[in-house]
Design brief:
Number of helices: 12
Shape: globular
Oligomer: single chain
Strand content: under 5%
Helix content: over 70%
Distance between the termini: 37 Å
Largest sheet: none
Order of helices and strands: HHHHHHHHHHHH
Structural class: mainly alpha
Number of strands: 0
Number of domains: 1
Length: 271
């Protein structure tokens, strides 16, 4: 009797294997992402989630699934107008909240030097925005939320699906803490608290992305845009460590609130 792996487990196993093997090469041979080979392995590993998602979606026996997958990627109309305010406004609001909290505690306000430099050179800001859109959201969201979460919802309710896909999203990043030159390795070098804060932050973001995806008719585009918002505002504000920790706490509170709402709600189906 031939056993068939569930589609979501196939997605997770292929994605982790693809990425971790390539990032493992960097770890074993000590390649930094500033090195040619290291950068190639880093990028090829980073594209795994969306690449696996696209491949598995295309191989679906139901041809209508691929058509639906593609429409969920490009259709702006699937995103309700008010949700654009959340997609592009939630992260800035959290950043403002973390800055104010830090000011109340320490009396300090960040200098926002990076933001100032970008504002002096709008062209560089456009370049950063394009790199941010490609480097995280497009490399990942067609897989994690577009395919992985979609398949989980065939078997589990919203809260379990959200927790499972977010768990794998968190652990997917772990090898990067041992790859020289990455943001993750810099955080690990900084302190264990920064390492822990980053992982809590990724968990919180994962729940938020699922929340947005769920409320916009399984729009992959909504997940891409929110992921872009996360990375873009993090990059241009470049908050100091203390403020980042407050930001993580606020994000975690929001994520837990969403989980509690899901638990207490009967609305556990995709809209």
């Amino acid at each position: 009797m031939k056993l068939r792996m569930a589609k979501h487990w196939k997605f997770f196993s292929l994605t982790l294997s693809w990425s971790w093997i390539l990032w493992g090469i960097c770890i074993v041979f000590g390649f930094s992402i500033s090195n040619g080979i290291g950068m190639i392995c880093y990028i090829l590993g980073a594209v795994a989630p969306s690449s696996v998602g696209i491949i598995l979606a295309r191989l679906e026996k139901d041809r209508n699934y691929w058509d639906s997958f593609f429409r969920r990627l490009i259709d702006f109309k699937r995103i309700q107008s008010r949700w654009y305010l959340i997609i592009f406004g939630l992260i800035p609001a959290v950043i403002v909240g973390s800055v104010l909290t830090n000011y109340l505690v320490s009396g300090n306000i960040p200098s926002f030097t990076v933001l100032g430099n970008y504002l002096k050179s709008p062209v560089s800001l456009v370049g950063f925005a394009l790199a941010t859109l490609i480097g995280g959201p497009l490399f990942e969201e067609l897989g994690w939320r577009g395919y992985g979460l979609d398949q989980l919802r065939e078997r589990y309710n919203l809260i379990w699906s959200g927790l499972i896909v977010t768990f794998f999203w968190v652990i997917w990043h772990l090898p990067l803490f041992m790859v020289a030159g990455t943001l993750q390795s810099a955080l690990l070098d900084e302190s264990f608290i920064s390492f822990l804060s980053y992982n809590v932050e990724i968990f919180s973001y994962g729940i938020l992305v699922v929340w947005i995806y769920n409320n916009n008719s399984k729009s992959i585009l909504s997940a891409i845009l929110f992921h872009f918002s996360i990375n873009f505002f993090a990059g241009i504000t470049s908050l100091p460590t203390g403020v980042k920790h407050f930001e993580t706490i606020i994000q975690l509170i929001i994520a837990i609130s969403i989980l509690i709402y899901w638990k207490n709600s009967d609305s556990t189906t995709i809209n």
